[in-house]
Design goal:
By secondary structure, this protein is an alpha/beta fold. The protein is built from five helices and five strands.
């Protein structure tokens, strides 16, 4: 597996809990406590997936998602929030989120969501390689 995942959440307890859970599943994890810190980290590391909270002081999840779409559009982003509603989920997906999970989340649901995001990224990369080979 060995995928590197970035967990972005201003709540240290939640950030550490998610990081530990993902590490138990075999993922490598880095964390950031703000959107600004997350943008700094994407400059120095290549992440396979980004998991970010929606409600954060300063740069919130929507603003971070917009910046990520510009800087690393192929990296799937999963939004997580305690304030889940259909409208919030639709807005996140409209802005380019791969998926959306509500807190507290079921561990299996979170893992499945990340696995699907990584699978989608793998398909995009494979498609790109095949097109280059044909060209």
């Amino acid at each position: 597996m060995n995928h590197l995942i970035l967990v972005v959440d201003d709540d240290a307890t939640m950030r550490n809990m998610v990081a530990e859970l993902l590490e138990q599943q075999g993922y490598r994890v880095e964390s950031a406590e703000s959107g600004e810190e997350a943008l700094e980290k994407i400059e120095t590391s290549e992440f396979a997936c980004i998991l970010t909270d929606l409600q954060m002081p300063g740069m919130d999840g929507h603003a971070l998602l917009g910046a990520l779409r510009e800087r690393c559009p192929d990296v799937p982003t999963v939004m997580m929030t305690s304030f889940g509603s259909i409208e919030v989920a639709v807005e996140a997906m409209r802005l380019g989120a791969h998926d959306f999970v509500t807190k507290p989340f079921e561990v299996d649901r979170l893992i499945l969501t990340i696995e699907r995001a990584l699978e989608a990224r793998g398909l995009v990369e494979e498609n790109r390689r095949l097109r280059a080979a044909v060209a």
